[in-house]
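Researcher: Good morning. I'm working through a list of sequences from a screen, and I'd like to move beyond sequence-only analysis. For each chain I'm collecting a predicted structure so we can compare shapes side by side. This is the next one on the list. No need for commentary yet; just the structure.
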Amino acid sequence: MARNLSMEKYADELPTIAIVGRPNVGKSSLFNAIAGRRVSIVHEMPGVTRDRVVAPLARGNRRFRLIDTGGLGMLSGESRRVDVWDSRIARQVDVAIEDADVLILVANAQDGVVNLDEEVARRVRASGKPVLFAANKCDNPALVEQSVEFMKLGFPEVFPVSCLHRSGVEALLEAAIDRLPEREHGDAEVTQEANVAKKLNIAVVGRPNVGKSSLVNALLGEERVMVSDVAGTTRDAIDVDFMLRFRGGEHPATLVDTAGLRKQAKVDTVVEYFSVMRAKSAIDRADLVLFVLEASPDGVTAQDRRIAGLIQQSGRGCVLVANKYDLCRGECRMKRLETELRRSMPGMNYAPLVFVSAQDRWNLDALLDCIAEVMEQLELKIPTGVLNRVIMDAFESHTPPVTGAAPLKLFYASMVGMAPPRILLFVNNPKYCAENYLAFLKNTVREAFDLSGVPIEIELRERPKKVTSIRSEPGGPRRRGRLRPQDETGKESSAAGGTGRKTRAPGRGASKRRDGR
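Model: Good morning. Structure tokens for this chain:
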């Protein structure tokens, strides 16, 4: 198949505000306060944020990107007592400073000016970008007055803020937006263009150290997220916006790199707990999940099966990605590995399987083509007439087994939802349908419409035996004929020719009285 999908960044067109500073000064707290939601993980332990966390935001007609960065924890030329992540975080911060139009330098008002604050200040001044200085953690008036101390760093104005009480945040943000460059065709037009197509979310999930971040970097063609042999390198859910070239056009999408999902009993830190929560949330809000496995002769692990269960429960489209195929290419054949993976996860048989090597960038075109195929299935709408013919033919060719008091009968079928496809079957009694026959119907629909990578949901509903007439319902239309008016007591009014008393129809007793008996 020819390659019909490619990735291309588009978020660089938006003006960018980057938040920088030394570790543990509240950069992520300020990021979440401006974003209005919990995007970055916040913890008192320094060095929690490692990769660049990006959130597209809007204030009025102005649209921009906000970037949260890791803390710069080393001085220039320092090599002793340097954490293993400090140099990698520094490279991520340098990229953020280079891409940004406006910088927000954050310091801790409770600590005052320290050597690392001066080092970060020299670095941001060297960039030549507009810089706003924010003295965070000004939780009382005394700390607000003490924030004047930061004027000696050479910035014309200091913004005292408190992310805990959300004081000073809006003033800081307005000042940053005022310094953003104006777009040539206006931000209102950009907002209208962005709302034309719904952004497709693609989440990359899997257990730790299977190569999720390496796959994200390979697809984007750059070192966007950190990669190492240490499990748990990725902590936040990293959203990367790009454009998918699809069906001859461009489709906005977001690629989400997530933390590795370990067994719940092995999650031993608060930071890892929040990382797992972010990963599960990424699955729930995704349109398509890239489930990364390790192409190994040992097969699928128990944790892989747990993750597969999460994906099945979410009802999202899925593509199985067997990474690190370069490590076992000489040991076993691809067909043998595929058979082992399919046998270990029978519930994921609907998902296509692609073998790749993110390190060697091998077979990525096949993965992109597979993503394109699943995208087409997500947008598929089955006509009601065609669906009914397929289901009826399945009933005629394979009679449903009798599991109750009567055989299962089908009256009508309709597609009631998409992504994933949801089909409603009106039957005589849902209890008469066996589980294996319901699986047979799902497979029949999948084969008839080539629904690969998309789970199918079939709901059985009992058809009402008869429809109640609206004439018998309360408040229904009245009978034809003239109705006599009634007084407040409900009796017929004498003004309408009535006596105001209840009249008794002549019966047997009345005839006896007339006869004198």
